[in-house]
User: Fold these one by one.
Assistant:
Number 1:
Amino acid sequence: MFRGEELMAIPREKLDRGVFKHVESLLAHFWDYKAEVEKIREEIIQATPSRDNIGGGRGNLPGDPVGKMVVALAEERRLKYLAQAVDAISAVYSNLPEAKKELVRLRYWDKPQRYTWEGIALEIKISRRQALRWRNEIIYQIARRLGWM
């Protein structure tokens, strides 16, 4: 072990490059997706239909139950997908040591991106190679949590 580091879990199976990039994208947009999950949940809560027709007669809004159902199902699927991604990233991030959390913040969450991998490594006081290993480990953990490996 170097510099008080725990042993890294070296992945036995290889993650497809496209999946790796997709998980990185999810990580980079984590805060946007987290806000979107909250927005969709709020919209679903607010969209509870009101059946009251106090004045009697027909309402003046056209009814499209199939269209409403399609939109609701699409929103529900998107909500489920984004919620799973947000939960997986949150769980992995919360279990990371502080130095690895700093790597995530510097690489994926600081906007605009200020550091290269060399700059991140210098900031955390590790080698560039070690920073990339940590990145790989974090991406693999998120992919595992999502069931993609």
Note: The chain has six helices and no strands.
Number 2:
Amino acid sequence: MILKGDLRGVPLSDLSVEDGIRPLRPDLGAVPAHRRQVGKHLAAIHRHYLIEMCRIAQVLRRIEAGEAPPAELKHIVLNAEMTQNFRAFGTICGQECRVLTMHHDIEEQSIFPQLHASGSEAMRKIVDRLRAEHLVVHELLERLAAVADDLAATPDAETFAQAGAIFDKLWEVVKSHFHYEETTLAEALGYYGVMV
């Protein structure tokens, strides 16, 4: 796992946020229920992104299987021809890249600085770790956006396979990152008065 520096040359298989040494959530004592609502709001935002990513994964799996899309996916995948399916997959992947990047930018520019300034040493270590994990997520988003552009312009099986591999790695990393972020910040956001 690599969490620092320029990640452009790092093999896809090495881009991960799992290493077993994530800082643990500090004991903040009894945090009132109303203070935990901010953490629940962050979790709800994450659920929205995961639902969107799940939707993309469904399209990916249907295209991989060579199936014609069901009626509910027609607005995403234009028709059963593989070329148009590849293009559509590239387009929706590119859109998701932009949305997740915006989410992380908000955390980086607002939430994390507040927690870093107000929090304990333990909370600062968590924020530093979350920022490092954002580097991995950002690198995967950059790679997915680039291959999605390629796929939209020149749809072929090889580019589609690359997009699928990057998307699968992004899915793995984002799920783990969101879980860690929610677990460590669930009470801390309200405790330190940070709004989401």
Note: The first helix runs from residue 33 to 64.
